[in-house]
Amino acid sequence: MTFTAPRHVAFTSLALAIAALTSPAQAQNTAIDSVIITASRAPQLQRDVLADVTVITAEDIARSGAGSITDVLQRQRGIEISRNGGPGTNSSVFIRGANSNQNVVLVDGVRIGSSTSGAANWSALPLQAIDHIEIVYGPMSALYGADAIGGVIQIFTKKGAGAPAVTGAVGIGSQKTRTYEGSVYGATGGEHSFSYAVSAAKEESDGFSATLPGNFSFNGDKDGYVRENAAGQFGFQLAKGHDVGLVFLNSRTNGQIDSGTPVIFYDARSIQKQKNVGVFTKNQFLPLWHSTLQYTQSEDNSLSDSGVRSTTSSIISKQHEWTWQNDIAIGADTLQVLFNHRKEEVVSGTTPALGKERTTKSVAAAYNMKRGEHLASVSVRNDDNSQYGNKATGAIGYGYRISNTLRANATFGTSFRAPSFNELYYPLYGNPDNKPEKGRNFEAGLQYHDGATELSVTAYRNKLTDMLVSTTPCPKNDPVKYPYGCAYNVNHVTLEGVTLAAAHRLGAFNFTASADFQDPKDETTGKSLQRRAKEHGTATVDYTAGPLVAGVEWQVSGKRFDDAANRNRLGGYGLVNLFATYRLTSDWSLLARVNNATDKSYEVARYYGVPGTTYYASIRYGFK
């Protein structure tokens, strides 16, 4: 049976587009005034951003009642997720069909991720500390270097401003889920102002079985998790135009997983730690010259404990990064010059061969231009790596405002992904001669915004070469060194698709919808990339009546395949979620959420569990 539900979401988007383009605007706003940082590494009005972007607010996160950041991301256009069980287990995030290790993830400008897997450790990232999230779709290597093939996700934690204030929340939910969070923030005035924001949170749940019957390590018990975190930002103004600051994040997730045999089961756990710290100074040396010097350090600590001491493994990835960014105003234009030095190192007590390090020295320049109705940008970058040598990337974009409400744009960019330490050095698998993957992307789109209605359509085609895959037998043809195959640059991949998005306000009702039609294909084999659907989308409608906001959300996905050979099919699914918030006073509010209200049974990874119907409710203080 063909799963066609995502097309209904597309029809909703198109219907809203027709309504918007054939009726007068219902509001006076003629431009999008949100400020985006990630798309150009500097604050920029969204109406001037050529890249395709999405912003997730703190209220969106709270209202979602989600148990993990991947749950929140899954509800965004252009994004799919795969997870081996509950919130405490391994997750993958695919942007526009790109692999999870083909995305760059930042927390307050601090680059995170494992140098061994090449991907971010999503299970260690807390929701409670997040103020908002920016997602930039498409290749961004010209600004961020290696791995920015599918896009960039930047997480911003809470920042201090205004009079001293305190927030707090307590929540309970299905599977004995409990959440506790609190924060204090504020800022002093005057010439030498000081801003601060500190938050801490804990969440725990009894969970559900991470595996299903058919999995080699199936155990029907519940696999719970505990996540604890603290985050903060401090800023001090030395003088007008001269600021220094510090950001930090420390999070730990202890999640149970299934491991063992049908006869013997162990209390197996995956313990994930994420530690970030960054210090910076921002200086306006001249009226038109803004300089930012930043040092950051991140640590990804992954411990797998099977319950048997001899099979416990630990891998620590560290990244140290210096960045000097200079933004120079030239009339309405901006010239950006950037210098970067990044060092990656891995420490592994159980796999000493991974204990390597490498450094990357980078220089980049970008120019953003505004001339009346015309927008343009060009950027170039060179990364000189101690392991794989020099890689040059670039991007160019152009946008034209057809009217005050409609804009057309097109961009072209190149990108690359650096081989992970696993692909280079893992015993009996890695090959130190592996080269970076390369990408060439072209996309074009239309954006409409009249204050009441927002619409966008984006078409893209990203051609990837030298893709690193696990091949058996290994092309090196050394049965002693590579008895089970190896990682090797062999495949060509095409990521192409169309994304539709719409939002419309009609009185007390607010409608949003998105649909993705994509074809992530391995051109070498002719097969679809695993765990990626050709169709997926979301639709939401909410209603506001005084202090009450209530709504329904629909998530849909078409069929996917769990394996590269496309033999194991994962069926399509549709999920219905319900949510409501009620403001008791100016400071107190209630939140309630029902996820998967119809108790749909589905899989995002073969023989791995997903939750059925779940409930969550919380009371919050101080959230505006």
TrEMBL record:
**UniProt keyword Ion transport present:** yes
- State any GO BP term from the record: monoatomic ion transport
Boundaries of every TonB-dependent receptor plug domain copy: 46-152
Instruction: Report keywords, A-Z.
Output: Cell outer membrane, Ion transport, Membrane, Receptor, Signal, TonB box, Transmembrane, Transmembrane beta strand, Transport
Q: Where is the TonB-dependent receptor-like beta-barrel domain?
A: 213-596
Name where it's found.
Cell outer membrane
User: Known Pfam families for this protein?
Assistant: Plug (PF07715), TonB_dep_Rec_b-barrel (PF00593)
Query: In the record, which residues are listed under signal peptide?
Result: 1-27
Q: InterPro entries, per this entry?
A: Beta-barrel_TonB, Beta-barrel_TonB_sf, Plug_dom, Plug_dom_sf, TonB-dep_rcpt-like
By what name is this protein known?
TonB-dependent receptor
> What species is given as this protein's source?
Pseudoduganella ginsengisoli
